[in-house]
Amino acid sequence: MMHQSGRFLLADCPSLGATALVLPYRHSGAVMVLFLPQDLYGLGALQEQLSVGAFELQFRECDVDVSLPRFRLRQVRKCGEGDMHVDERMWHGERALDILAVCHEAALQ
After folding, report:
1. Read out DSSP for 29-95?
2. Are 49 and 39 in contact (CB under 8 A)?
3. What is Dmax (Cα atoms) for the chain?
4. What residues does the Serpin domain cover (predicted)?
5. Are 29 and 49 in contact (CB under 8 A)?
6. In this predicted structure, what is the pLDDT of residue 22?
7. Is 49 in a helix, a strand, or coil?
8. Which portions of the chain are predicted below pLDDT 70?
9. C-alpha angle with apex 15: 10 to 18, nearest 5 degrees?
10. Domain 1-68, what fold?
């Protein structure tokens, strides 16, 4: 398990029945936003409702104790993201391609 105590950004999301917690990556401007269902069995409902623009969050800084299972993420570039930028012609041709989703791989340790 990974444990950390500190001041983190937190937001209540009543429309999702969840709380959002922002965890910044060290030495980076990137963050990970965790959505925590307020109902013990609310993960399925949260996943169905979660989409870009489905909510507006009002973050506040709070003292939080965070405990997460140890995991590792592979960088998107290592998962093939670099392939999207190999040939710029594919973005400007007659049939432009759209990226519908980017998936990260996470593994619990």
Report:
1. S-EEEEEEESSTT-HHHHHHH--TTS-----EEEEEEEEE--EEE--GGGGTGGGGGS-THHHHSSS
2. no
3. 52
4. 1-75
5. no
6. 92
7. helix
8. 52-55, 73-109
9. 40
10. Alpha-1-antitrypsin; domain 1 (2.30.39)
